[in-house]
Amino acid sequence: MEKDLTKGSPFKLIIGFAVPMLLGMLFQQFYNLVDTIIVGKTLGVNALAGVGATGALNFMIIGFCMGVCSGFVIPVAQAFGAGKGAELRKYVFNGYVCSIIFSVVLTVAAVAGCRALLTLLRTPLDIFEYSYSYINVIFIGIPTVFLYNIVSGIIRSLGDSKTPVVFLVVSSLINITLDFVFILGMKMGVAGAAWATNVSQLIAGVSCFVYMNRKYDILKGGREDRKLDGRFVRKLCGNGIPMGLQYSITAIGSTILQASVNMLGPVYVAAMTAGGKIFNFTCCPFDALGSTMATYCGQNVGAGKYDRLGKGVMTASIIGWIYSVVSFVVLVFTARYISLLFVNPEETQIIELTHRFICASALFYVFLTLVNVVRFSIQGMGFSGLAIIAGIFEMAARAFAAVVLVPAIGFDGACLASPLAWVAADIFLVSAFLHCRKTLVRISQSRH
Predict the structure, then answer these.
(1) Which residues, at least 6 apart from 223, have a Cβ–Cβ distance to it below 8 Å?
(2) I need a surface site. Which of 76, 166, 274, 350 has the fewest CB within 10 A?
(3) 3-state DSSP percent of the chain in helix, strand and coil, to 5
């Protein structure tokens, strides 16, 4: 069901929009956890480390794909907020065409360069083949990433955050089932976990696409809406490419950090893998708030209601800060026990390192709140190019941790990498948001 985010209490709108998205993200992370649990428990520490060693590379390529899709749907949200149905449908069609082109090019490039990239990352030889088997299959599934993210993004741009969750939950259950079938039943190893992810994501994307085109009348247009238009392509790429690059630039710092941790050995890689999985699960509320603010700000900018932007950002930030405090307290006492999901109890060193990694991250979740809320708000307002600058700040901070801190203080340096990146990004993002809001108001006043 379509939902207008330009009217009513920002708190109620943000909570109502974010909660369904949060549930979907939790389910998504849940099946990612199942992948990791099965790999770690049945295939061993080296297999777990092998999958974990691909984390930064995965984020750099798949993150770019997701960022591009997020950018493609910003004009859709703005057109919806402005009540321009014909323009919205043209953005949707041109977004499909751009997604197909991007997915084909990226799949070919990523698969062809996969082994070379893992070598460049200095992936340890004893886990190299595990890493290659996993990430190569993930890259083959890049078209499914585009399919699900562009379609679910369009649905959310129309104010419906619930429908994508339904299909994501179903695909999560399919993913978990396929994990057992491919890894335990068919003995496909770590590649089985990757194939399970690809197949389930394909099912979610196709289901969303079919449902969306039957359900939403605003998307039902004529042949005149299904034409490739350079103006629309330029605006789509003007939003999508910067957002994709923001993810990839951020991931470059993570990649440098991953290479540095790889030099410490499989035990540290495994600990960072387990800690990363816990982090991904606990930071879902921040991701949900960020995606909510992209749609919220996109619709309100389209409607010309700039006074609601600051109220929305403050509301979302307060929600995130409250969660940050609660999650830190909980993780301090539970992280060791949660790590037992990934490794056996006798792996005491990995358990302690995992606890140290996740607690260091959680201590700085208040800064991660602003990274997600403010960055996505800026993107929703139509200033996606600034996301690249924020990504550079994050990249520089993680690279500093990798090059300076890890050699000096070991694994503790890796634990501090993300907190430093969040603080660095916030320094830029807060001032950038204020500048963007003033710019929109000034443009609006000049037109009147």
Answers:
(1) none
(2) 166
(3) 85, 0, 15
Per residue in 10-29, pLDDT tens?
889 889 888 887 887 787 77
The answer to whether residue 115 sits within a structural domain is yes
* Cβ neighbours of 191 (radius 10 Å): 18
Structural domain includes residue 3? no
State the sign of the Cα–Cα–Cα–Cα dihedral 354, 191, 28, 262. Answer: positive
Q: What is the pLDDT of residues 154-194, one digit of tens each?
A: 888 888 878 888 888 888 888 888 888 888 888 888 888 88
For the chain, the domain total comes to 1
DSSP assignment of 90-104, as one string?
Answer: HHHHHHHHHHHHHHH
What domain range includes position 204? Answer: 10-447
Q: Rounded to whole angstroms, what are the CA distances from 121 to 127, 399, 404?
A: 12, 13, 17
Name the CA radius of gyration of the chain, rounded: 21
Rounded Cα–Cα distance for residues 171 and 174 (Å):
5
Q: How far apart are CA 130 and CA 139, in angstroms?
A: 15
Q: Burial of 411 by CB count in 10 Å (0-12 exposed, 13-18 middle, 19+ buried)?
A: middle
Q: Specify burial of residue 125 (Cβ count, 10 A radius: 0-12, 13-18, 19+).
A: exposed
Over the stretch 89-115, which tens digit does the pLDDT of each residue have? 999 999 999 999 999 999 999 999 999
Name the 3-class secondary structure at 163: helix
The count of other CB atoms within 10 Å of the CB of residue 1 is 9
Specify the pTM: 0.77
